[in-house]
């Protein structure tokens, strides 16, 4: 049965097109001749109808630049990797006999102490692997004088040879000076240079307690965890001493020989030990028998946690551990040690039996050597004097 389609009138088609009806024709009706000609002619395709990505890549410059940049980076990386040396690979042993021979060869090439560590894997790690070396905190009081740079440089060269970590706290009696700061920088040792009591009018001996307290404040304020040691800049120290300091758990002491000012007498100050236990003291005279502990200031060291952790102190009543400012000459060491320990049972004598001398206190007579009046030593070693 033939279907009859009723065409719209031209006026109705224009009305639907004007109001954008969904079923309106998008173009005016074409003639049969035009329709037949378009159907018979070949269909023209747009160049980017099949591959739109390639069309955008060829027409826009930015994607082309990005593609060539990635390609060049990849080629350059391949060229760099081709020049790297190849790591030699050990051949896999084909059987158990070859594996045992390889293990024997490795044991012969390893040092003896590595073999001992591998032979006892369950016995605990090495001391360096358990917690590493302790931090050494060396506090040195100093003051401006003609030989200050010499003493600081000499002590700094000794500390430079000590195995790190090490912190050198240098406390100036007064304001820090450029000459001392320059000498400390030349030593290449990690240091902290501070000044104290610049308004205090006192002698060099009275300055020392204030300077040591300033160094202890640096340790306590920053809660440094390590071993604190007071090192005089005039003293002589062996490297073996600093290795022993890292073995101190709480408080350690050792004998120190002190040379008199004239250089004719040598007095030994420090403990008498049986193994690592302190059983007595070396005394230098009848007047020193009143001291509780006969120790030199450079003859003991202690754990820094005793300064800022009150639970580790022997005397819980002390609010802070400091050097007493008003004390009789010769009693500075014993009054400070009494704040750290109660008796000899809490001390460690180092080394075993206290059988080695690890440092010397040698005064060079430089306490009265000052700059001449009217002279000034510049950094370039030129001497300038005022004209009269």
Automatic annotation (TrEMBL):
Gene Ontology CC:
Golgi membrane
State the superkingdom: Eukaryota
Q: What is its EC number?
A: 2.4.-.-
Q: Where is this region: Disordered?
A: 1-48, 95-129
Q: Where in the cell is it found?
A: Golgi apparatus membrane
Q: Where is the composition biased (Low complexity)?
A: 22-41, 101-117
Q: Which UniProt keywords apply?
A: Cell wall biogenesis/degradation, Glycoprotein, Glycosyltransferase, Golgi apparatus, Membrane, Signal-anchor, Transferase, Transmembrane, Transmembrane helix
- Record membrane topology: Single-pass type II membrane protein
Compositional bias, Basic residues, is annotated for 1-21
Biological processes, Gene Ontology terms: cell wall organization; glucuronoxylan biosynthetic process; plant-type secondary cell wall biogenesis
Q: What are the protein's GO molecular function terms?
A: galactosylgalactosylxylosylprotein 3-beta-glucuronosyltransferase activity; xylosyltransferase activity
The residue ranges crossing the membrane are 65-86
What the entry lists under InterPro entries is as follows: Glyco_trans_43 (IPR005027), Nucleotide-diphossugar_trans (IPR029044)
Q: Where is this site: Interaction with galactose moiety of substrate glycoprotein?
A: 269
The UniProt family comment states: Belongs to the glycosyltransferase 43 family.
The record describes the protein's role as: Involved in the synthesis of glucuronoxylan hemicellulose in secondary cell walls.
Q: What is this protein called?
A: Glycosyltransferases
From which source organism is this entry?
Lolium multiflorum (Italian ryegrass)
Taxon lineage: Eukaryota, Viridiplantae, Streptophyta, Embryophyta, Tracheophyta
């Amino acid at each position: 049965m033939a279907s009859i389609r009723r065409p719209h009138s031209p006026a109705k088609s224009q009305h639907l097109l004007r109001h954008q009806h969904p079923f309106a024709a998008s173009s005016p009706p074409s003639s049969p001749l035009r329709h037949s000609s378009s159907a018979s002619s070949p269909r023209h395709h747009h160049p980017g109808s099949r591959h739109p990505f390639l069309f955008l890549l060829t027409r826009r410059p930015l994607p082309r630049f990005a593609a060539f940049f990635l390609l060049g980076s990849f080629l350059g990386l391949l060229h760099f990797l081709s020049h790297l040396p190849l790591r030699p690979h050990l051949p896999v042993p084909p059987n158990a006999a070859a594996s045992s021979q390889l293990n024997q060869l490795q044991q012969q090439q390893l040092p003896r102490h590595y073999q001992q560590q591998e032979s006892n894997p369950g016995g605990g790690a090495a001391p360096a692997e358990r917690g590493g070396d302790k931090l050494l905190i060396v506090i040195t009081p100093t003051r401006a004088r003609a030989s200050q740079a010499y003493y600081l440089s000499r002590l700094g060269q000794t500390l430079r040879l000590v195995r790190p970590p090490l912190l050198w706290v240098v406390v100036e009696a007064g304001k820090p000076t450029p000459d001392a700061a320059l000498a400390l920088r030349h030593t290449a040792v990690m240091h902290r240079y501070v000044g104290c009591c610049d308004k205090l009018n006192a002698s060099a001996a009275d300055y020392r307690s204030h300077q040591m307290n300033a160094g202890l404040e640096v340790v306590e304020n920053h809660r440094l965890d390590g071993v604190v040691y007071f090192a005089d800049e005039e003293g002589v120290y062996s490297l073996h001493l600093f290795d022993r300091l890292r073995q101190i758990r709480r408080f350690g002491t050792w004998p120190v020989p002190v040379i008199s000012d004239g250089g004719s007498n040598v007095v030994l100050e420090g403990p008498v030990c049986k193994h690592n236990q302190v059983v007595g003291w070396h005394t230098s005279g009848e007047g020193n028998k009143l001291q509780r502990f006969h120790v030199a200031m450079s003859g003991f060291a202690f754990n820094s946690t005793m300064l800022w952790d009150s639970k580790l102190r022997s005397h819980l009543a002390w609010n802070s551990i400091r050097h007493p400012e008003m004390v009789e000459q010769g009693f500075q060491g014993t009054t400070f040690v009494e704040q750290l320990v109660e008796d000899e049972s809490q001390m460690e004598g180092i080394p075993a039996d206290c059988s080695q001398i690890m440092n010397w206190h040698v005064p060079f007579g430089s306490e009265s050597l000052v700059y001449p009046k009217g002279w000034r030593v510049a950094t370039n070693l030129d001497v300038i004097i005022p004209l009269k």
